[in-house]
Structure formats: structure tokens, C-alpha cells
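Hi R.,

Here are the chain sequences for the assembly we discussed:
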Amino acid sequence: MTAPARPAPPIDSWLTERYLALVSDSDEAGAIELVGELHDRGVPAERIIVDLIGATQRRIGELWAANEWTVAREHAATAVSERALAAVAAHPTGRASRGRITLACVDGEWHGLPARMLAELLRLDGWRVDFLGASVPGRHLITHLHQTGPDAVALSCTIPTRLPRAHAAITACRATGVPVIAGGRGFGPGGRYAARMGAHAWADSGETAVARLATAWPSRPVTDLPRLGDEEYTFLVRSRPELIATAMGRLIGAYPAAHDYSAAQTESTVEDMGHIVDFLAAAIYVGEQEIFTDFTEWTTGVLTARGVPPVALRTGLRLIRDQLIDFPAAVATLDAAMIL
Amino acid sequence: MTLVAPASALLQAAIEAAGEGMLLCDAAGHTVLLANAEARRLVPGARLGHPVTGPFPDPGADSFRCEFEGRSLAGTRRDLDGAHYAWFIRDETEQARRIAHSEFLAEVGWRLSTSLHVGRVMRTVVELAVQHLADTAMVVLPPHRRRSTWTRLLPRRAVEEGTLPERLLGDVPGLIESLDGFPPIPSRWLDPAQAPGWLLPAELGPVGAMLVTPLPGNAEPAGALILARHGAAAVFGEEDEALARVFAARAGAAIAAATLYHEQSETAAILKAGLLPPDLPVIDGVELAGSHHLHIGGDFYDVFGPAGDDTDTVIALGDVCGTGPEAAVLTGQVRQTLRVLRLVRAEPAAMLRVLNDVLLGSGRRSRFVTMVVGAVRRVEHGRIRLELATGGHPGPLVLRADGTVEEVAAKGTLIGVMPLTDIQPATVELGPGELCLLYSDGLTEARGGPAGREHFGEDRLHRALADCAGMPAAAVVERLSQIASDWLRGGQSDDIAMLAVRAPARTPLSLRGGGVPEESPFLIAARRGDRRSRARS
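And here is the predicted structure of the full complex:
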């Protein structure tokens, strides 16, 4: 005896709103119940992962950027989504028929959920998946490759400041003979930086990664070993503490409003200075000004949402620039950002 | 058409003595006027009085390099007197073969050196063999527990892998000998027709030649390489066999190295399994979360879930002195001792006292440890009671529902140093959504920050934890790991141990803040349907 066939419900805005409300309340049980119910109603696990959990995760990022959500709330909601994803993944899939793949987030990359979603999508597609988690140190990854000998490695990087680490990981993976697919916004528009770093392929979403790995993988043999970074990059990384300290020392002179900053405000200004140096270093490393100008554009939006005037960021850029006059690439990059 | 006067015998002799092939032609009709023996050997179709045919390019081109009738030829055209020209032809077959061999061996070198995984190395071996040596290649490893692992690449197929029983190895002529390390049998003595179907499926058509070569390893054979060329007339020449032996020597070394690595890492994995952080048990009414990627030796944590009629969960987090294997061994001893003490239901403070005696009794100096041990018990209304004892360790922190952070007042001296320990345990209660964090001083002493030299410090930790109010335990640990890693700016973060215990937050009972939309008509209908079908079944 079977229950009458009922069409699987589409994942519509009503469902995504409801799911968002559950995760924003940290209602783990409710979120798990909802995805379980959708699964029982015949909604394919892929759709739940991509259209419900993934889409909501993007919304949460927007809500944080718009200063509607605190970081804590964002983290709590993400934790609930991780549990909901685990509940979807708990349902058995078919036999692993494709091969073995290792998934990892680049060292220092803490956004683990997108990679975890990809892990589940690949499992559903018949891969045997080893998911190593968020922020995987390079040597842990390489040890794992030598011990398991997978057919592919998928590396996730959503923040461009992690690109030098990503490059080191890609190079090391290739040295073990395992082809690499890169994923995540960190690799730039169209995955431009992924190719520059020697990855065999790039995917902009979990679904395209699954499709890319399902057909003629790996596509092209990559034999060139790109060398990136130069002495300007090395200087920026080495002298990061001095750059920040000097900039902070001159801050009140350049931006009198900083005189009244609370300890917390000062601390976050120090953090922002650090971000400026880090994104600048990444842009120089990869040789792409766009990495830096994208960062300043995005930061302007985030700061505006928090009531910080754009001139504050501009002051920070100038304070860093004044210390780098002997470094033409760094100056050109900072100038490009200040014109915007 | 006019022929030049017959060359003098001396001229003819000089031309014949030249090392290169020479072909003298008339420029008008492109007919061959004179050819030496080397030219006739390299271009058999060149006949006196006939038009020039062979590997030559169209009139106008002055040189060529190509494959012609199984040889690599290179030629240069020289005008002689306007009415005549000559082709000078060199046989570069041997040179091309040598270049191809050295390029092949260079590729073999780097491709085989990349992986330490046996399966991957075997795949690379058959791929290289099929690219350069044969139409089909198969690697067979010596039998292990009466089965042999194999990897095979057939024409126009993907690499296949599997195992076969030892008794089948005798089906392939020369295979057992090769696996025993005897020198290879020349291909001409092996009858490919005797090859079994599991090696060369019948649908591949006739196989002309087969070659079985041992893969030399570390003191014992690493396996055997079977090569086959398809087509009834195919053979392996002496040079092919020699090249296959050179290739096999490198392939064997790579497989042997990977096998050794596998054996050693397997042993290490077994030893490490007891030292890595445990998989946390799932306990009703208690949320647990621990940090990942912990370095072995040094910091550790452990959780012992309810056992039998003992409903307490015991948690422990500590930091042993020193680093490396010695610290790892000490960690293992401490964890094992705790496991035993938990079975006799020792209280946390008693556990630390016994542990102190154990470490002192081991008779070795400077084996001390700082740690926190806690007994976790569920009490009424979704609350959790923790009894905590510390020995020289940073006090655990409690995150209250309103974001207040308190340090637990438990006190105690270092474990393993003094015969008498002073341990004053403390009890804390967590309401729903409240959390207790055990951490090692790797967290507060993490050096970094904007200046690069500053300790992360307790104040920052308190503030960071206060921001985590309301988060699930896993999210708290992950967030603190992230903040510490950012602080360290990618430096070593694997000596930071954290273990969080939380009383699960109550699920909101009402539609808080009106943020949750009305129940979906679809879901209500679906639930009703559920009940109906359950009732019927």
C-alpha cells in the first residue's frame, strides 16, 4: 500500500522565507524537520541543498553586509544550516561510482559551508568524498593526498587574501600528481585567478563543479608551474605590523574624528588597516588590481551600512600609500582604488 | 630531356663514399640524374632518369624533415649550377629514437616521483607504458594474503583496477617468475595466445607480442609489468625490451617507495588513532564541540559519554609538557588513566589527585601536565551542572545567556610535580543556551595581531566569547578558532585546544517577533496526508 503520489513541492519564496526564519531563530530542530519533510515529499536532495540551504546562506551574507545581522547571528544561523545539511546528507545515496575526491577549504578560509554543500552534491553524484573541513593546513592536505590517492582535489577559497595560501596548496597538490578544481569567489570573476595559479579547472558554484567533474575530468593537462608574487609582496607581508602601527599613529592627524574613538572602535580600525594591507598584498601577489578595488568597493558599502563615511576608508588608504612611495605596483593599486 | 654525360668513375666513387645520401637532379624536369647507394637505401623509389619522388617537398622548398618508410629523414637542397640541384639526405632515425627515449625517461622521472600513493603510482605506470611502449599495459603486485592487486590500461579504455587470486598468476607465461624477481624472459619466447582472458580480453583481437618484465623493488620485487602489442604482426624488438627494462626499474622503485610509505603511514595512523581528538559522543540534552586539526602531542581533550548506569559525561582538556612523540606518549597515558578513573566513578578532583600520583610514580622527571576535568550532569529544566577541577590550567569560562563571561573559580596546582596537590573544585550550572569553554593557553598566548608580537590575551578572549552569546557550541568553537587564526595570521594554530559544553537553547515556542510566516497550507495538507497513510499502513 502506498500513499497517493503527490508532486514534490517547488522550493518557492514561501519556503525560503520560512527556512530563513528558522535559522535566524537558531531553531535547529525546526530547520531539520523542514528539510526532512521536503525530502520525504520527494524534493531531490540537490534542490534542498542548492535552492534552500545555499540560497539562504547567500541571503544571510547580504543581511550581515547590510548591518541587519550581527556576526554572531550569522554564525549561529550558519551552524544551524550545517546541521540541516547534515540531516539531508544522512539519507543514503547510491553506490559510489565515479572516483574519489578530496575537498578542503584553503588554510585560513573559514567559510566551510559552501565546501560542505559541494561535498554532499558530489556524494549524491556518485563520488567518494573526503571532506577535510574549514581552514585545512597545507601539510594536512598533502599528507591526506599521499595516503588516499584521490582522483581530484577541490579547493575552496572565498576570500582573495587567502590566494597566496591557495596557490601554495594548488602547487603542492599538483606536485603529488592530483588534478585540482578550484571553487569560490576568492578566485575572481570567472575564476580568472584559478587558471593563473595552475588549477586545472574552476567552478563558480557547487552545481557547476559537479557538472565539470562529471565530464572528461581532468580536461587539460597543465604543465606550466606559475610563479607569482614578487619583492613588493614580500615587503608588504614582512612590514605589515609597521605599516599598520605607523598608519594608526598618524590617524588622528589625518582624520580628527578618530580622536573620540572608543577602544573597540580603535581596535576595529586597526583591523581595517590590516585588511587594506592584506588585500593589497593579495592583489600584488596575483598581479590583479581588481582584487583590491573590489575590496574597497565592497568595504565602502559595508561601512556605509554602519554609518561610517567613505572618507574614513579613503584616509586609511592614503595613510598606507604614504608609506609605500617606493613601491610602484602598490602605489598604482592604491591610486586605482582612490579614484573610485 | 637530356642526360648529362656519364660521371667519371672517380666522381662516382667519391659520391658513393659520402656518408649522406646524394641525389643529383636536373632543375628543368626534376628527374634523377645520379644517386649514391645511401640515397638508394633511404629513398628506394629514386631511379635514374625518373622524376624525383619520395619524401621531398614541393619545388621551391629547400629542406625537409619527416618520417619516410619507417625512418626519420632530413634533407637539404643545394643549387649546383642553375640547371642542376642536389638533395643531401641524412638518416636521423637513431638520433630521433635516442631523443624520444630520453624525453620518455625524463617524463617517467618526474611523473613517477610525484605521488607516494601506491594506486596512483600504478596508474601512472600503465599510462606511461601505453603512451610509449605498448598498446596494453598491466601492473601486477606480488600476492598479499593470496590475492594480487592489479592495474590495467587497455586501448581506448579508462584505467581499471582490481585484485585476482594468486592461483591465476600461473596463467600468464613468465609472470610468476617475474614476481619472484627472475630476469625477464625475451618476448619471442612468450606466446601471447596463451594469455588468459582476464589479461587480454578476446575482443581486442589478435595480440602479436607480449612482454613480462619484473619491477625491481627494495630487496624484493615490487611487482611485474605486462606489456602487449596488438595486431598479428606486432613484435617487441631488442631495443624495445631494453627500454622496457629501464622503465621497469624506475617504475619498480616508485612503487616500492609508495608501498613503504603506505606501510609506515598505516603504522603511524594506528599509533596516532589513540592520540587524536575523539569523535564527540552525541548526548541527549548536552551540546559538545571541540577544535579540529589539533597537533599531536601537547594539547589534547577527551570526552567519555555516559556508560552503563553512570549518566555523567566526563570531559577533560589539558596540556602536557614538551612536544613531539614524548609528549604524545604522555598524552596517551593521561587519557588512558582518565578513562579508567571514569569507570570507577572518581570525582574530577579525585581524578586529578590519582593522576598526580601516577605521573610522580612513573619515576621520570619533568613529566607534568596542566588540565581541567569536569563531570557533566543534566539537571531539571534543561539545565546542566558541571563539576570542574583544574590542575594548573587556565580556568574554564562560562558564557551566560545575557553575554556575560565568568571565569570558573576552580583552583589547583600543576599535576605531576608535587607529591601533595591542592585542588579546589567548583560547580557551575548552565541554563539553556549557556556555555562553558575549556581551552588551552595556546589560545590566550597566541602571538600575532596587528603588531605581530602581541599575545591574544584573556581580555580579547572574554570579549570574543561574549559576542558568541546565543550561538550553538560548534559555532562558538569555530568562531574562536577563526579569530585565533586571524590573530596568528596563518601561523601555527594547531596547538590550540578548545572544548565547549552547552545546554541546548530552548526551541522558540511562539512565533517570536512575528518574523515567522504562517504555516504553509501545503505543509499542513502534507502532514494530514502523513497521518492518514500511517494510519492505513
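Chain B is about 30% helix and 25% strand. Chain B touches chain A through 54 residues (CB under 8 Å).

Let me know if anything looks off.

Best,
T.
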